[in-house]
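Journal club prep, notes for RB
We'll compare a predicted complex against what the paper describes. Inputs for the iron/sulfur cluster case:
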Amino acid sequence: MREVSFYSHEEEGILRCNICNHRCKIREGKRGICGARENRDGKLYALNYGLASSINVDPIEKKPLYNFHPGSKVLSLGTIGCNFRCLHCQNYSISTASIGDYPLEEITPEDVSTLAKEYGVGGVSWTYNEPTIWYEFTYDASKIAKRDGFTTSYVTNGYMTEEALKDISPYLDAANVDVKAFKEEFYKKICKASLEPVLRTCEIMKEEDIHLEITYLVIPTYNDDENEIREFCRWVVDLDPSTPVHFTRFYPYYEMLDVPATPVETLKDAYKIGKEEGIEYLYLGNVSGLDEENTYCPNCGELLIGRSGFSIIRCDLKDGRCPSCGFKVNIII
Ligand code: SF4
């Protein structure tokens, strides 16, 4: 347990958590929406500090991060809890779990670096559940991991507050942010959250020089409308056309079992829209064997990185440039 990094005192006996944009008002003895922060005797505590639900070594492509140290391995860690309530959550067993009803391993920030060294990975990734749920631990461990020469990355729903994000940004190299739809109504109904703070997070990441990639899970009838996808793509281009975008395939899961898997044609349509709008690095995910999992030069179309699932089968870059036309690519090696 550890005192929360960002909170304020409201009226008598009520604290406001400022870690994510829900900014929960929490009464004495109560917890916030994520279930991980509790008001105890007038102080706000993170209950899950150093309590890991999952620790694995993954290819960085699994996050997905395709333009950030391609082919490298990362130590991946998550805890339990979430600040969203997505009906299609792929990790609901940990995102909906409470402390006491899920097996958790206690670790220290130093342990993360030690494990990363033991496994010989290049970085540490906060993933599986929303990283801001154990923000304080990810902050401390990322700081040590950076000191020890590892990269750090967040796989996130992008709902952290500006103050929390700016504070951790010196210790955060990369992030994949889920933009779950481009309509407020979807965020309200499906995630019990709001779209605007997520878009703002992407802007701040750019300002803070954090390598950003965006995932858009395409769900039939929910967020696959051509106009919505085009609007999303235009927003990406305004943000920075060199931001890699992953359109990924939905499979029926959790409380959305009645919705069919995304047709591959729909994904290809999204890819085409992204190309038309000028996004430079586009990928299709959760479906294998497509050319759209490769990286092509945005300038001349040359194949730069060939992939098969999460494996790299070829990587042709010369000093961060396309070997064919010399274009400087947004790929960190
Ligand atoms: S981190 Fe948890 S307690 Fe804090 S504002 Fe978000 S949901 Fe509420």
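Talking point for the session: Helices lie at 92-95, 109-119, 135-147, 162-168, 184-191, 196-207, 226-239, 264-277.
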